[in-house]
Amino acid sequence: MANDRLIKLIGLSGSLRTTSWNTALLNAAAKALPANAELSVADLQAIPLYNQDLEPNDFPTAVSELKDRVAEADGLLIATPEYNGGIPGVAKNLIDWLSRPIADQPRVLHGKPVCLLGATPGPTGTANAQVAWLPILRTLRMPLWTDQGSFLVRAAHNVFDDGTMTDDALKERLAAYLAEYVEWVGSRRGRS
Questions:
Q1: Which of 76, 82, 112, 114 could be bridged to 126 by S-S, CB 3.0 to 4.6 A?
Q2: DSSP single-letter state for residue 6
Q3: Where are the domains of the chain?
Q4: Does residue 48 register a pLDDT over 70?
Q5: CA nearest 29: which of 11, 7, 2, 55?
Q6: Sign, CA torsion 99/150/36/32
Q7: What angle do CA 76, 152, 86 make, to 5 degrees?
Q8: What is the spatial distance between Cα 28 and Cα 3, in angstroms, rounded to a whole number?
Q9: In this predicted model, which residue has the larger pLDDT, 75 or 3?
Q10: How far is CA 117 from CA 5, 25, 111, in A?
Q11: CB 78: neighbour CB atoms within 10 A?
Q12: Model confidence pLDDT, tens digit, residues 55-89
């Protein structure tokens, strides 16, 4: 049966910081997934600032490789920080690259099931940043999993220690959240 195969997910962190809580959240997610899923966290350090002059002849190799990985994945986990009440520039830059050229959007992004997560030291989690993602995902025809609401990590400085999630209750909540997301991704296979 086609839906019995391993569900492959790719994780994108909206932060380049070495000790990023959002990258740590993706690493925790990789450990919390059910046995029928795996998560590969992409390294975005080599992604340049978006420049349309580089299309199509000088398209950056790092971007092309990441686009292929996203296209091959069954689903996408985006761990978004919240900077000044919105989406961080790293994340927006990445999605701008992934969406180019426009003719490639159906192969890479259309129909790609997305799960938004976010960690911040603030009291609202990344609620504003996650809301700011909605028009972007809608424009790119990327369905957002919302069955369990937003996954927000507040007071992240108390939840992670040296890049490891230390809050057992949060680990359990993350595992349950991701199990339902993985089930939804599996149910969507073959759709666009």
A1: 82
A2: P
A3: 2-188
A4: yes
A5: 11
A6: positive
A7: 80
A8: 25
A9: 75
A10: 25, 8, 19
A11: 26
A12: 888 899 999 999 999 999 999 999 999 999 999 99
Q: Structure tokens of 104? A: 């490639």
Q: Which contiguous run of DSSP H or E holds residue 150?
A: none
Q: What pTM was computed for the model? A: 0.93
Neighbour tally for 10: CB within 10 Å: 22
Beta-bridge partner residues of 172: none
CA–CA gap between residue 69 and residue 57 (Å, rounded):
20
- Average pLDDT of the chain is 93
Structure confidence by residue, pLDDT tens digits, 94-133 = 999 999 999 999 999 999 999 999 999 989 899 999 999 9
Contact 6, 36 (CB under 8 A): yes
105-120 exposure pattern, b = at least 16 Cβ within 10 A, e = fewer: beebbeebbbbbbbbb
Instruction: Kindly give the interhelix angle for 168-188 and 21-32, rounded to the nearest 10 degrees.
Output: 70
- 84 with 2: CB under 8 angstroms? no
User: Is the CATH code 3.40.50.360 the one for domain 2-188?
Assistant: yes
For residue 78, give Cα distances in angstroms to 59, 88, 93, 158: 23, 12, 13, 21
